[in-house]
Design a protein that fits this description.
- By secondary structure, the chain is an alpha/beta fold.
- The chain has a single domain, classed as Purple Acid Phosphatase, chain A, domain 2.
- The strands form three sheets. It has a six-stranded mixed sheet, covered by helices on one side.
- Helix 2 packs parallel to helix 3 and helix 4 packs parallel to helix 6.
- It is globular.
- It starts with a strand and ends with a strand.
- 44% of the residues are buried.
- The structure holds fe (ii) ion.
- The site of fe (ii) ion has 8 residues, from loops.
């Protein structure tokens, strides 16, 4: 049980690659990150995005994402689907939705098999196993502020009851990150989530949403947040501002019961 994978997060793609977001090009940034991964970490087992794939949640934005990644096939949620964009060589990719991904649009565009004949788009409470490690995706909802659901907690409980070493994938942050406006976005009822975690063999929780890289702990489990490929945020005195920082991705190594990771920063 030894392998590596890459996490990316919060791409906020627009309807076309030429469309800017407050002067920033999310498409250019994501292309730079993908190109860097292909050149330097193209041998990892897979890539996972922890959500906010697009900005508004419209079909054209998902079409832009799929074209950029070179995705030609569909799969059951959460993947994998093989990417060939920017030099990636059939890289298996998994995708979680964020609060900018309305579930109906996300599943219709990324995982249409999962909603065929289903009246309401499901939440991304799913899991997959890779080389003996279980990846548990938890869905805190499509609002900016996370909120647990009985279904999500039950999904986590059942997944961890298998006793497999597990990695939890979450769009929303589950701990404070030291910025009041972002800290307020974690679920008020995160204690229930933490109580379920405590009983399992969870190697780490990987999160997005805050657009910032940090390390924390919840119920003794390492929590690893990751900077977005989109622009990030900062508290500047009394003001909440949009901050330009180079995007980052996380290279995660799982070696037996140990998990370690490195942050790679990409110049634009
Ligand atoms: Fe985001």
């Amino acid at each position: 049980m030894s392998f590596r994978f890459v996490q990316i997060t919060d791409h906020h793609l627009m309807a076309t690659e030429a469309t800017l977001s407050r002067g920033y090009s999310p498409a250019h940034a994501l292309r730079c990150v993908l190109r860097h991964i292909a050149a330097h970490h193209g041998d990892v087992d897979f890539l996972v995005s922890t959500g906010d794939l697009v900005e508004r949640g419209i079909d054209a934005e998902y079409a832009t994402l799929r074209a950029m990644l070179g995705l030609r096939e569909y799969s059951a949620a959460p993947g994998p689907q093989r990417a060939t964009g920017e030099g990636l060589r059939d890289m298996p990719c998994y995708f979680l939705p964020g609060n900018h991904d309305p579930r109906a649009a996300f599943f219709r565009n990324m995982f249409p098999w999962s909603v065929e004949g289903v009246g309401e788009a499901p939440a991304m409470n799913a899991a997959f196993v890779h080389k003996g490690v279980q990846f548990v995706c938890v869905d805190w909802g499509a609002a900016n502020k996370a909120a647990s659901t009985p279904a999500m907690l039950e999904h986590l409980r059942r997944s961890l009851a298998t006793g497999m070493p597990s990695i939890v994938l979450s769009h929303h942050n589950v701990t404070p990150v030291g910025v009041p406006r972002l800290d307020a976005l974690a679920a008020d009822d995160v204690a229930g989530f933490a109580a379920v975690l405590g009983g399992g063999t969870v190697l780490a929780i990987l999160a997005g949403h805050t657009h910032m890289t940090y390390e924390a702990r919840l119920a003794g489990v390492p929590v690893l947040g990751l900077r977005s490929t989109h622009f990030s945020f900062a508290q500047s005195g009394e003001e909440w501002v949009y901050a330009l920082r180079p995007p980052q991705y996380r290279v995660v190594t799982v070696d037996g019961p140990r998990l370690s990771s490195d942050i790679v920063e990409v110049a634009l």
